[in-house]
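Lecture 7 notes: from sequence to structure.
We start with the chain below.
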Amino acid sequence: MTEEDIAALEHPVNYKKRESSMNAWLNIIYKMMVDGCSNELIYFYIKHQESFQDTDSKLAKYIYLIGKNNFPDRDPFNAKTTMEWVLPPEVTVIKRADILKYILTCNPKTKRDPVIEKYIQQIKRIYPVVKKVENMFKEFHSLLMGKEESKLDEYLKKYEKSEIQAFCNGIKKDIIPVKNAISFSISSGFVEGNNNKFKVLKRIVYGRSGLVNLEKKCKLAFMSKSEDFSLSDLL
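Predicted structure tokens for the same chain:
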């Protein structure tokens, strides 16, 4: 550093703090904690203020951070636990991610969530978008597993102006490989899967076991199901 740089350190620049929608509530959170209010009381008090326009997750994050940084003896705030404590036991909470996982599961052998199984028809009736997403996915999955690549063009034309427009545009950019995946039974999936498995094994033993043990571990992973395989081959 030059002498000018060192001299500049004695006069730090007062940078303008970035404005946040939570700035107006920081002092309130802090003062309520000083007064001994519980995290749950602070959370629901601010959440139900008409002037509070931010997300619940951000509010919970600020309560957690202010409590952690300024009151080390205070119990950490967990919004999820709070909601479970507030909601009556007869209320069933189903997350959007779980619904997506349910409707996007095609393998009949996969075990599905029994809670969603119970309410899925009611969810589809109240939220038609769920059924719409399921239909779009199943339609694409069926043509991908089929042999008629012309159906892909029909699918893209049908949904090019829908909510999955970005998805359709992405397929159009690489439409030839996608059509090849439909029309040809040959796939690089087996090679890519084994390549990924090799890399995982390499990372597990990297720098500790050496090439000899890496070779043995790979043989054990790939040859153990062979009928003529014997553990003595690894010695």
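Points to note: The longest helix spans residues 128-145. The mean pLDDT is 84.
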